[in-house]
Amino acid sequence: MNRVGVVVFPGSNCEYDALAAMTALGATSELVWHSVTDLSDFDAIILPGGFAHGDYLRPGALARFSPVMGAVARFAADEGPVLGICNGFQVLTEAGLLPGALQKNIGLTFLCQPTTLVVTSTNSVLTSGATVGQELVIPINHFSGSYTCDDDTFASLVEHDQIVLRYQDNPNGSRDDVAGLANERGNVVGLMPHPERAMSTLLGSVDGRVLLESFLTAHVTA
Amino acid sequence: MNYSVIVDVMLRAGIADPEGSTIERALPALGFSGVSNVKAGKSFRLSIEADSEAAALEKAAALAERLLSNPVIEDAFVRLGEVVGS
User: Fold this and answer.
1) B86 pLDDT above the threshold of 80
2) A112 annotated active-site
3) What's the pLDDT band for B85 if we cut at 50, 70, 90?
4) Which candidate from A61, A106, A149 shows the least CB-CB separation from B18?
5) Among the listed residues A14, A26, A9, the one whose alpha carbon sits nearest the alpha carbon of residue A215
6) Contact at CB, A101 and B22, closer than 8 angstroms
7) Which domain CATH number covers B50?
8) Which of B18, B68, B72 has its CB closest to that of A104?
9) In a domain, B85, yes or no
């Protein structure tokens, strides 16, 4: 049985949604306070949504210096599965674990709505169980979700098939409709949409399940 | 010496600046014409204990690169403010 650590920074607010999603998929999970420096008990790590350290300065700018982030970097370097959702994605980019950056939405509005995503690569722990071209309805809930990077970085992302999810109708100005991307090895993934909020027909969609099931079945070599 | 240092953080050229664009579009409606290239950024004021102006600026540049700016999308510019004490 997978044991999933859900990192809680001061200001995280989607950690219980992540726990509920893991429970719904039969995994055990627990909260991990951001001062923890040893993640060796876990098979997978989730950085949840929210406003870590108040999003002061920039989203993720202070969270990257939380003690847990050194352990997250080591966990990722050992090819452990790491998933950053929304604010967690922002933290991973600030920490340099994923390339590029997330800036304010192009319309300067906070967006909270369902979006249709298209799976564009299955070379990641989040999308390995999906199929390329598959459409998933998953909500977004963010102000700074516009993905940006320089041309060299973008060329590298394309070359290594790292863009795993794209928006069908780009809501926030993200470069090339990027909604989610992985590192080169595919074990670290970040996305702005919230798959943990698309786990139940009662809440409008179950399309998050295929992603989180993939994440839980990811081969762990750590 | 305590040196007053100003750090300006601006989006790099080529990175979309929706705040600057929105402000620029709002100006004509308020009667301000002929204003262009509006850029929005952040400004920080620091007092830095250092042996020289150069050392203070070097420290400011280092912390600006590490924390105050995200070099992926932003440039940081450091300059001296007024001396606040010795």
Assistant:
1) no
2) no
3) low
4) A106
5) A26
6) no
7) 3.30.1280.10
8) B18
9) no
Assigned domain for A37 exists = yes
Token pair belonging to A210: 């295929």
Indicate the average pLDDT of chain A. 96
Residue with tokens 């979006």: A115
Q: Is the pLDDT of residue A221 over 70?
A: no
Confidence (pLDDT) at A118: 98
Q: Which of A34, A86, A149, A213 is catalytic?
A: A86
Assigned domain for A192 exists: yes
Q: Tokens 């967006």 correspond to what residue? A: A111
The predicted model gives B59-70 an average pLDDT of 97
Residue A22 lies inside a defined structural domain of this protein: yes
B67, B68, B73 ranked by CB distance to A103: nearest: B73
Number of domains in chain A: 1
Q: Is the ipTM of this complex over 0.90?
A: no
Average pLDDT over residues A20-24: 96
Residue B11 lies in a domain: yes
Q: What is the count of structural domains for chain B?
A: 1
CATH number (domain holding residue A186): 3.40.50.880
CA of A8: how far to CAs of A18, A29, A32, A205, B54, in Å? 11, 13, 6, 25, 40
Whether A101 sits inside 8 A of B18 (CB atoms) is no
The reply to whether residue B72 touches residue A108, judged by beta carbons under 8 angstroms, is no
| Residue A128 DSSP label | T
Are the beta carbons of A61 and B72 separated by less than 8 Å?
no
Global confidence as pTM: 0.93
Indicate whether B86 belongs to any domain. Answer: no
Of the residues A94, A104, A105, the best mutation for testing chain B's interface (the one with the most B CB atoms within 10 Å of its CB) is A104
Please say if A14 is a catalytic residue. Answer: no
Indicate the pLDDT class of residue B82, thresholds 50, 70 and 90: confident
Instruction: Give the contacts of A101 (CB within 8 A, at least 6 positions apart).
Output: A93, A94, A147, A148, A149, B70, B72, B73
Q: Which domain holds residue B26?
A: 2-80
**pLDDT reading at A14 higher than 50:** yes
